[in-house]
Amino acid sequence: MKNQYKLSILAVFALLGLTNTNAQIAYFKFDGNAQDSSASSNQVTVFGTTSAEDRFGRPDHCYAFDGASYIQFNNALQEIKGASNLTIAAWILPQSTKQISIFSHWVPTYFYPGTSCGIILGINTNSQLYINYRSESDVTTATYPLTLNNWSYITLVYDGTALTNKVSVYVNGEIVPLNYSNASLIPSQIADIATQTTIIGGRASQFGVLDKFVGKIDDVKIFKSSISSDQVMSFYNAEKGAVLALDFAVSLRSSNLTSGQTYQVQKSIDLQTWDNDGSPFVAISTNWVSDKFWPTSGQPKTFFRLKLIE
Predict the structure, then answer these.
(1) pTM score of the predicted model
(2) Last residue of a domain, one of 242, 258, 278
(3) Which of the residues 11, 268, 280, 296 has an alpha carbon 20 to 30 A from that of 49?
(4) Are residues 230 and 274 both part of a single domain?
(5) Which residues fall within 8 angstroms of residue 208, CB to CB, at 6 or more apart?
């Protein structure tokens, strides 16, 4: 039987060239609160989300969304309006196959049909990331499906100045292929509309907030710049932490040996055939503890005994 636990160790890195405070316009660590740690100090209102255990097992270090909760900026994120370069990154753990939104800066298309309405980063019913800019039909979809109940580091990089490939999507630091409903309709800048609403875990509609997220969200970063693929990978490597595999092992002990007698450790997997393990030893007291450890991970069920050698 394999007994194995994973311990996550969070490493802190000083990554030169990645923390551009001028480009970072929002950073929500969700460490027990919804404060913005960026220089922008955006104020938000929490509607029903609760603090939860994060990807490292730390309590109160992310936010849980139950399909009815969301976080809304008190004032729409002004720096996004008219931006031609944008990066959105977050750790997410989706728990629903419904269409859900991770982040949106949006005005309902009902009021502005056929025009650019902002940007939505969400997950469709096939567990694929999608990006929306105009109507619900003008969508860019990542072909890579996310795994429910698993943490993933997702990054959207938007460069409206590019002639082609204005949008790139990454999952766990790796770029993923995209399907475009109409690549020519991807705008050269994010729409600037006075009534736009910025939401984490949902999107604005004429019926209120829809597509509310189900699962957990953590470490939301937004940059008014298009970061490189190397920077995406560096962020991922810095934030995923190291994973150690802990293998269990056993030692043997006895408290009723006869001092001066010679004993042999033997083992068996069927209680029929016994094999010597190591060399015989002479007991120097009634108490004995082996100086060897036997691993249990990946091993068959094993029995041990001490045989008295006459």
Answers:
(1) 0.72
(2) 242
(3) 11
(4) no
(5) none
